[in-house]
Amino acid sequence: MNNQHRINGDIYQILSLPSLNYFSVIEIRNSIQSNTNKYGNKNNARLFVARQLQSLLEAGLITSKGTGRKKVFAKTDLFYKTDFKLIDKRTYGETFIANKQQDDNGRSLISTELEKERKDIEAELTVTLAEIEEYKGLMRRSDELSSLILPLYSETTQKAATLMAKLNVRSGVLDLLRNKEASTC
Question: Residue 63's domain spans which residues?
Answer without folding.
Answer: 4-87
